[in-house]
What does this fold into?
Amino acid sequence: MRNLWKIFFNERLHIVLSSMALLWCWDRILAMGVRPIDYFILPLAVACICQWNRLTDLREDAVNCPEELEEALKRERRIRLFCYIGGATAIALALASDPTWPVAAVVISGAAIGFFYSTSPWPGRATLRIKNLFVLKNLMSGIGWTLGLLVYPALRAGHSLDGPFWLASAYMFLAVMAHEIIWDMRDVAGDRAAGVRSLPVVAGPGMTKALVLAAMTILATIVAASVAARLVPSWWLLLVPHAAILALVAAQFDGWFHSSRLVTYLLVVMTTVFSFGMGLLAIRLS
It folds into this structure.
């Protein structure tokens, strides 16, 4: 059983599963009518990006997770083959099933963010990776996940980009950024050694925690204000506890919550369970 959990986390299957849960959750909440094929395309794209990152974050992973890096490098050829074939398949299926310019723009933008996040557009200049760019790395993660799990399926389903949609997009963007910054807090030793200008490396843990708390407070306020304005039903307030958990984990990182990869892995699992729960609630109350 222990080996199964190790494979589940090391192969980033928890992140792939979270993408499926989030897509299904927003589909239920917003009633977008996501195309069935997108439940294959989007998780496949996420899997490719996650696997590609295992091969490109060499200097930081040599410090942060040397065993995981060693395992990935042993299977480098297979991982690269999976990424090339899987990425091409996801892009081809998306464009072939909906060859419109808006969808093509989102697909190309998402693919560019996913690839150049950990790969420099200029060979040998790792400092040009999105991951190395202060704050922009966190912004691009939020934008990438929002494009992939909300904008892309909504455009393909012909869903109206109305008030609830933009509220969901704001929630997705800020929550993903919070996750990303917590991961940066975990990886600060390797990022510093590799010259990655993450928020914790540049601003320090205190300022980083304060920014996550501020972002989650803004998020909760936006949701509450939207409910008060009757833009969305009152049960949307159940999104607030998720934001509160992210704020709490950030505030108590290296406190109540010991800085470890397991903590951040379980945080993703929590988000997955929460997403399935919100989706079921939306079905019941719709």
Remarks:
- DSSP finds 13 helices and no strands in the chain.
- The mean pLDDT is 93.
- The two ends are 39 Å apart (CA to CA).
- The CA atoms of residues 70 and 185 lie 22 Å apart.
